[in-house]
Design brief:
Layout lengths: L1 E7 L2 H10 L5 E8 L9 E2 L7 H10 L2 E6 L2 H4 L3 H7 L4 E2 L3 H8 L1 H11 L6 E4 L2 H10 L4 E5 L8 E3 L3 H12 L11 E5 L4 E11 L2 E3 L4 E2 L2 E3 L3 E4 L4 E4 L6 H11 L1 H9 L4 E12 L2 E8 L6 H5 L7 H10 L12 E8 L22 E5 L2 E3 L5 E3 L3 E9 L2 H9 L38 E6 L5 H11 L5 E8 L5 H8 L4 E3 L8 H17 L4 E4 L8 H7 L3 E5 L20 H7 L4 E8 L9 E8 L6 H25 L1 H8 L16
Parallel strand pairs: 1-2, 1-4, 2-3, 4-5, 23-24, 23-26, 24-25, 26-27
Antiparallel strand pairs: 6-9, 7-8, 7-9, 10-11, 10-16, 12-15, 13-14, 15-18, 16-17, 18-22, 19-22, 20-21, 27-28, 28-29
The chain binds adenosine monophosphate (AMP) and glycine.
Length: about 650
């Protein structure tokens, strides 16, 4: 029996240590530096992942027979070469092989030589040359930092404008530091992404079950890229023969190329694939186990992981890896503010009743008080398993683990449920509904949202509240949506005062809303101004509730028009005899779109902001419900109008343009 060292401190390493602990050939397992989760299945040693000397010392002092390196940051130090030069077995490619992950241009050159399909690409350090290439592909390109940028160096562009901004930020503004001093611009491919992880023993590549990662933060694959919000395995529409064909097309030729170069690859080779209409293409290689893929793949392996990894190091892998017939699904529980500014220190509850799940720790810590707390962005991976994906997902989502500000996606695996490869591109997230679909954007408490929910539940309003969004994770509106079992999402904004974060937030917002294809968008206490671009991109009627009277042509008012965020306070300060509430269409100019309905509210001598606000709210609720009801009833008319250009903003009254 042998002692094993796992280098790393995330959920991937917890899963590795957990699986290795099942081997009868393993005596002690050490994890450097590990986390509270690995401490439950192994012994943590306080050595940082990039401390090569510390790792070598640990291998020698703990009599380690095999070292498995988790993170790319550890491989990037070349510790695997150091260990081997001292005669220690290690899973992980040498410095030459690691360039497959560490240098995108190296990877592209190898693929080209080996005949592996990959997006057409070019490396640039010159801005003007990059611009030319972008224009060649009409802006349908992906801009990538050439070096390691911790998963953040990739911009998928939808237009020439987007692409030019990305190129400028990387090459002229040095957004990715030295990792982006040269960039790769490549053609953008369309298809399904899957993660193919192979064990490679120098000459042979053997596939583990294929998994699918969910990189975007929000449901419907919207929002910013993250380190991975969930995964499932196996991918149901890829049978054994298809997986073998994928390995032959995308991994074996590269393994052969490296062997020919005198650098046989011994480690994990992870191909990030995109399955396009014209076959599989490689998006990237990683030289390590994927995270969160490892957490779903290892529980399916029906073989001694230690023996497999030893075979990687020795060059003696079997032709196939035995797996169970089960399915697994991992749901990542992420911290408040992830990925921009994850909050740490929230107490984790319910972890001692994992139910039918495996729980792997990604970023947790136990403080002086003995409580388990969040300690980073991705906190825990909850892995359910079952006979099929449905069961696996049900188990993972039944987990009672909670912490303050916790975010998890609600749609892991949704693409694969009951679908084949071909069916994959069709959106099943939005089953056809005959009712008008309403998306509600509410920053705060959500009382207007509640009014809509209540009206719908009471049968007064024939509408389907298909989506609720807030930019505040603790918003009452999200709680109300949750309590009413309505689909909802938190779309974070890194910094409300920074135009770049505002823009990023807005595009995430637009994307996530468009996924739900609403017929109407209701701003119900939405504190951010939608830009003209966003309004145009949403291409859906948007209505807003405003706590003041807005102008209607031919119906003059004898009080001033109060626009903006302080309309209630302004009405009091101006000593007006009355104010009111309005529901109006949203146009780029703030509070200036056509009015759908309005009603006045008397101001009394004893009113303060709070008392006036209470009465205004009641009127707002009634106006909103009535407006939505009317819109629902005149929906066909509205739908036709929505397709017109912005000059034809629809109104159910005669048009009141201001
Ligand atoms: P990478 O770090 O290279 O895997 O890129 C991160 C993500 O960007 C991938 O998972 C894809 O979703 C996307 N991506 C990268 N390259 C392309 C491409 N050529 N076409 C379309 N999407 C891409
Ligand atoms: N899940 C993708 C990665 O590990 O890079």
């Amino acid at each position: 029996v042998t002692n094993v060292l796992v280098v790393g401190n995330g959920a991937r390493e917890h899963a590795l240590a957990w699986k290795l602990a099942q081997s009868s050939h393993v005596s002690r397992i050490f994890v450097a530096p590990g986390n509270p989760g690995t401490a439950s299945v192994a012994e943590n040693v306080p050595v940082a992942i990039d401390d090569c000397d510390g790792i070598l010392r640990t291998v020698e002092s703990c009599d380690i027979g095999l070292t498995v390196i988790g993170p790319e940051a550890a491989l990037a130090t070349g510790v695997q070469d150091l260990l081997r030069s001292h005669g220690h077995a290690c899973v992980g490619p040498d410095e030459y092989g690691f360039q497959l992950e560490g240098s995108k241009s190296f990877a592209k050159e190898v693929m080209e030589r080996a005949g592996v399909p990959t997006a057409r690409w070019q490396v640039f350090s010159d801005y003007d040359a990059a611009v030319e290439f972008v224009c060649l592909f009409d802006g349908s390109v992906v801009v990538k930092a050439n070096g390691l940028a911790a998963g953040k160096g990739v911009t998928v562009c939808g237009s020439t404008d987007d692409a030019l901004v990305a190129v400028r930020e990387a090459l002229l503004d040095w957004r990715f530091g030295s990792a982006g001093r040269s960039i790769i611009v490549e053609e953008r491919l369309e298809g399904i992404e899957v993660s193919l992880m192979c064990l490679v023993d120098g000459t042979k590549a053997v596939a583990l079950p294929v998994a699918q990662d969910h990189k975007r933060l929000l449901d419907g694959d919207a929002g910013p890229n993250t380190g991975g919000m969930g995964a499932y395995a196996p991918v149901p529409f890829l049978g054994r023969a298809q997986v073998d064909a994928l390995v032959e097309a995308t991994v074996t030729p590269v393994v052969a190329d490296l062997a020919r170069s005198g650098h046989p690859y011994r480690g994990i080779l992870f191909a990030g694939l995109i399955l396009t209409d014209s076959g599989p293409y490689v998006l990237e290689y990683n030289c390590r186990f994927g995270d969160p893929e490892t957490e779903v793949v290892l529980p399916l392996v029906d073989q001694d992981l230690f023996l497999l990894l030893q075979a990687v190091a020795d060059g003696s892998l079997p032709a196939h890896i035995a797996t169970t017939a089960n399915s697994t699904a991992a749901v990542i529980l992420a911290a408040h503010g992830y990925p921009a500014e994850p909050r740490t220190g929230d107490v984790i509850e319910g972890i001692n009743e994992p139910g039918n799940c495996l729980v792997f720790h990604a970023a947790t810590a136990i403080n002086g008080d003995g409580k388990l707390r969040t300690a980073g962005g991705r906190v825990l991976a909850v892995v359910g398993s079952g006979d099929d994906l449905h069961q696996a997902l049900a188990a993972a989502y039944a987990s009672p683990i909670r912490f303050g500000g916790m975010h998890r996606r609600g749609d892991i695996g949704h693409h694969a449920l009951g679908l084949g490869y071909d069916a994959y591109n069709h959106d099943t997230a939005n089953p056809p509904s005959t009712k008008m679909r309403i998306a509600v954007l509410a920053s705060g408490g959500g009382s207007n949202l509640q009014a809509l929910i209540d009206a719908e539940r009471a049968g007064f309003l024939q509408a389907d509240i298909c989506f609720v969004v807030s930019h505040d994770v603790d918003a009452g509106s999200l709680r109300r949506a949750h309590d009413a079992a309505l689909p909802h999402a938190y779309v974070p904004i890194a910094n409300r005062r920074d135009p770049v974060s505002r823009r990023a937030h807005e595009s995430a917002l637009v994307e996530t809303i468009r996924q739900r294809s609403p017929d109407l968008i209701v701003l119900a206490g939405w504190m951010l101004v939608l830009s003209e671009n966003a309004i145009r991109a949403l291409n859906t009627p948007i209505i807003n509730v405003h706590p003041a009277l807005l102008p209607v042509e031919g119906e003059p008012l004898d009080v001033p028009i109060l626009r903006g965020a302080h309309a209630v306070r302004d009405a009091l300060e101006l000593g007006l005899p009355y104010t009111g509430a309005s529901v109006h269409y949203v146009i780029p100019e703030v509070d200036a779109g056509p009015v759908i309905a309005r009603e006045s509210v008397t101001i009394t001598s004893v009113d303060d902001e709070a008392s006036l606000y209470v009465r205004l709210k009641l009127v707002e609720h009634q106006l909103l419900i009535n407006a939505v009801k009317q819109l629902a009833e005149t929906r066909d008319q509205m739908r036709g109008a929505a397709n017109r250009t912005e000059s034809g903003t629809p109104s159910i009254h005669s048009s009141h343009h201001s």
